[in-house]
Amino acid sequence: MEHIVLENMILSSYEPEPLVNNMNAAYYGEIEIGTPGQKFNVLFDTGSADLWIPSVLTSQGICGYRKCYNHQKSTSYQANGQSMTLQYGTGRMMGKLSQDTVKIGDLEIKGQTFGEAIYEDAFLSKKGTPFDGILGLGFPSLSQYALPPFFQAMQEGLFEKNMFSVFLDKNHPEGSNIVFGGYDEDVIDADQINWVPITSPKYWQFNMDSVQIGDQLTVGSNAAAIADTGTSLLVGPQEDVQNIASALGATAYQGLYVIDATQVSSLPDIVIKINGEDYVLEPSDYTVNAGQNLAVLGFQSLQGSNLWILGDIFLNKFYSIYNADDRTVGFAPLNNNNNY
């Protein structure tokens, strides 16, 4: 393949892969598997490391409303047959491993090992889920089964620079994208990228300086955090999140925290400090209107862990770059024309 560097696309030889914004809660895009290509919508997830899609071998009836992979229709399919089980915070999938060609836009990865899902828990298999499967973008050590697609492409030498970047547009259903091999200077100013060292190459994990709630409360000092495109909210240790909710006057309700919608405009900014830089979330960034004069805080607690997860509420406010060569994550403010 001839690699042509695109205008305004730094170090990238590939067109941006468009992502669809599903109500600011999930961002997914189209891939192809097999020869000829079978098309699937997948959640691009930096918080996991496996690729899987539903299989025609399932007996759950999923193929009536989701796209299912049929290896008998692919001339590039290679059997593997090893069983696999993946557990997510929202449910579990079980299936078997297969190998085939995977295309993400014009990026082609041959012999990619992935999962054919034969069973999915209710949350993953429900009809309202807008994507068919998940494409994990975490480090290889996070997977028990296969080299993740991005790292498989790295191994094949398909990138001029071993990085990918994510732009999540929270204001429009279309316009978001993921770029493999570089980042897009139409979206950010390269001089404003804050390169943060990875502390544990499993997740895209780093040390966060603090989370400050106005001038009322500071939590998360020197806490471990991960950038996770597969998580909708900001997730933190139970005590920290409870203290944040209390400082904001929110009430616990079914695992989340709610507040009178009329109070949102008077809430303080939340400042997440990373590698010496301040990332400011305004009340409209970290609350969601739930109707009936209620707003939901974009925070959720994680029991038994000190880890912070910076999900889409953070990542759709700031551009993120995942650099496997330098073992860094880069964050940058969006240009004004992309932040309205």
TrEMBL record:
The keyword Thylakoid belongs to this UniProt entry's keyword annotation: no
Protein name as catalogued: Peptidase A1 domain-containing protein
UniProt family annotation: Belongs to the peptidase A1 family.
Protein keywords: Aspartyl protease, Hydrolase, Protease
A molecular function GO annotation: aspartic-type endopeptidase activity
Domain of life: Eukaryota
Annotated GO biological process: proteolysis
Active site: 45, 228
Pfam families linked to this entry: Asp
Domain Peptidase A1: 27-332
Keyword Protease: yes
InterPro entries linked to this entry: Aspartic_peptidase_A1, Aspartic_peptidase_AS, PEPTIDASE_A1, Peptidase_aspartic_dom_sf
